[in-house]
């Protein structure tokens, strides 16, 4: 049975562990680099990404997390976890990286601008049939401003009217620019990386967790066929 690690430094890791339990999957808390060894996949939960980065540095986790992501095993970042996985964050901060995109950490504004909305996610219905909408719980949420060509967009949402105007310069000497599109990307997949700006672990809908576990199965199937190819040659 798959063993899913959940980074347990801060934030909504207990909620992810409970969501995994609901679908009969064993999740284990990860706080130290050596605890990543032997895992099949990893969830990086929501919380507060700068605090999480400080704790990750304290535990010397960044190199091991980067190795885990580049090693190709499935990794899912929700909210602050999405920020961790991005290659670039507006304003800069230490990141794990791997996901070819730029994020804005507080795209939708402050805690007071937290909101819930229905999202349309055709991929969820493609996998399981049924309804393609899901509840998106956005808590002081980030959003994805742009993605590279290898990144599949799974969901976007309208930019709420009450959101403060934000500049989207990357902190690397770019010209200041205001985000002016009327929709913004909130869920993506790039190979072994899944990222959502919202919190499926705070709903009773298990489809995102099952979607992630399917990525785990796919990666096992790939490893198995590579192994049988190499042993038959
Ligand atoms: N905006 C937060 C951050 O900067 C993330 C919020 C969340 O994970 N709910 O880390």
Task: Describe it.
The chain is an alpha/beta fold. The chain has 6 helices and 12 strands. The chain has helices spanning 13-22, 49-58, 62-70, 80-85, 122-128, 207-232, and strands at 3-7, 26-30, 41-44, 75-78, 86-89, 99-104, 115-120, 133-138, 143-147, 152-158, 183-190, 193-196. The strands form 3 sheets. A 7-stranded mixed sheet has the order 2-1-3-4-12-11-10. It has a 3-stranded mixed sheet with strand order 5-6-9. A two-stranded antiparallel sheet has the order 7-8. The radius of gyration is 17 Å and the shape is globular. The two termini are 29 Å apart. The model has no long low-confidence stretch (mean pLDDT 91). The active site is at residues 79, 199, 201.
In short:
By secondary structure, the chain is of the alpha/beta class. The protein has 6 helices and 12 strands.
Q: Which properties best describe this structure?
A:
single chain; 233 residues; alpha/beta; 7-stranded mixed sheet; 3-stranded mixed sheet; 6 helices; 12 strands; 27% strand; binds glutamine; glutaminase; glutaminase activity
């Amino acid at each position: 049975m798959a063993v899913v690690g959940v980074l347990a430094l801060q934030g909504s890791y207990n909620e992810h562990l409970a969501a995994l339990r609901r679908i009969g999957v064993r999740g284990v808390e990860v706080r130290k680099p050596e605890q990543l060894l032997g895992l099949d996949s990893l969830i990086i939960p929501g919380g507060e990404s700068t605090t999480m980065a400080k704790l990750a540095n304290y535990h010397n986790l960044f190199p091991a997390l980067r190795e885990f992501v580049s090693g190709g095993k499935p990794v899912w970042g929700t909210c602050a976890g999405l920020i961790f996985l991005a290659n670039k964050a507006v304003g800069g901060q230490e990141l794990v990286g791997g996901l070819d995109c730029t994020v804005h950490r507080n795209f939708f504004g402050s805690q007071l601008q937290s909101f819930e909305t229905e999202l349309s996610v055709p991929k969820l219905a493609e996998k399981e049939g049924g309804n393609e909408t899901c509840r998106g719980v956005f808590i002081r949420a980030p959003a994805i401003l742009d993605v590279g060509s290898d990144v599949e967009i799974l969901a976007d949402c309208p930019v709420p009217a009450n959101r403060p105007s934000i500049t989207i310069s990357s902190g690397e000497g770019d010209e200041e620019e205001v985000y002016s599109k009327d929709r913004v990307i909130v869920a993506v997949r790039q190979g072994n990386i899944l990222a959502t700006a919202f919190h499926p672990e705070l709903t009773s809908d298990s489809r995102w967790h099952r979607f992630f576990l399917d990525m785990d199965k796919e990666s096992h199937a790939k490893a198995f066929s590579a192994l049988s190819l190499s042993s038959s040659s």
